[in-house]
Amino acid sequence: MYNSGHSIASNLFLTVVVGLLVGLIIGYPGWTLSITLIIWGLYQIKQFNRLQQWLMSNDRTNVPESQGYWGELFDELSRDQKRQQQRTLSLRNVIHRFQQSSAALSDAIVIIDGQNHLEWWNRAAESLLGMKVQTDRGRSVMNLLRDPRFVRYYRKGLYEDPLELASPIQSDIVLEYRITRFGAGDRILVARDITRLKQLEQTRQDFVANASHELRTPLTVIRGYLETFLDQELPKPLQRALSQMNSQSKRMENLVSDLLLLSRLEASAHVSDELPVPIHSIISRIQEDGLALGADKHQTISADLETESTLLGQESEIYGAISNLVFNAVRYTPAGGHIKLRWWTDKKGGHFSVQDNGAGIDSIHLPRLQERFYRVDESRSSDSGGTGLGLAIVKHVMLRHGGRLTINSQLEKGSTFTCHFPSDLVIPTPQEEQTEEE
Ligand code: ADP
After folding, report:
1. Which residue, judged by its Cα, is nearest atom 8 of ligand 1?
2. Judgement on whether residues 69 and 138 belong to the same structural domain of the protein
3. Are 26 and 32 in contact, with CB atoms under 8 Å apart?
């Protein structure tokens, strides 16, 4: 920083000495000193005025020129001015490059401040989300993106999973919204056009659904003939071959029906009509079916059903999901094993779990276990007669009910599969309601 204190003092001292000397020579030291000090003071005021005028002027490019310490001060200010200009220029360059690159992006980017007001957005946001530069700056994001699902997603604040929604200005464009927090309560919203991806996904789903549907009829005919042949008196080798063909075609039939079911589940994201599901009696029925399935394994299946509450949803889908989990537990738990079924409710919703003390699953498989055809051990699964689609079906049933499936497992110790249903699908019994009110 510039320090002119020493120069001013020495300059004043020099002026006083010169004024006194001249005054002594001409014989009027008092007068001469006073006049010299007045001239010195007027000069300082003049320089100060120049500095003030320059500081207050709009155009600060021409720094005033001067001698001595005023000159040094003006030079320092001029250098500082240049440094400032350079910093502004490089900042402007960075902003310009950022704006250019973000404008070139095909994804919409929107910056939202802590009060949920739109602060800045790129060009793609105008074409995908319909934002207008002149009118929308400072408006609430929820005034512009009014879809209740977006508003709920935005307000909830849980942004780990993206939200898929049609564009507010072009309903045939599907967008994937992602929100990230930054700074003090600010958010950045990125909307990506996933229409093509969705179309491809739809083509794949349609193909699987059509292929499964077309395979069903020939399979039924083949099985019909095989069963007729098997009823006849046939030579032993032929009998064995035919019964193997029969069991394989039965497996194929199961596979086709699971594929069809999965396509149906994938066709829409949510169940259309939610009706009361007697969850208690469903679990009891499946408990009996599970015991029958593993009759020769002498397993125990216990059920701990804490409440009598009713679940809202699609009964057939929920029955399918629960039976898949229970039958898996029976299949993958050795003879003499124990299987525990549990249904309970809490503030988060309703939960159904199946716990077994079977073979368990290595943790490396857990993240992929709900994918279709993902199998831990190919030979073990084929032996058990599974299609490799069971858990994918459960996952989709849960998604359609706004819930999720969680898996906990340890090798050699056993597994717990839990279906979590959201609280808005659980109706407490009148008794429970009364205790809650109290
Ligand atoms: P699958 O028809 O092969 O049983 P699923 O989708 O139902 O297909 O299950 C996927 C895989 O998860 C199975 O192949 C099996 O290896 C594993 N698995 C499922 N349930 C259990 C369980 N209760 N105990 C151990 N492994 C299991």
Report:
1. 388
2. no
3. yes
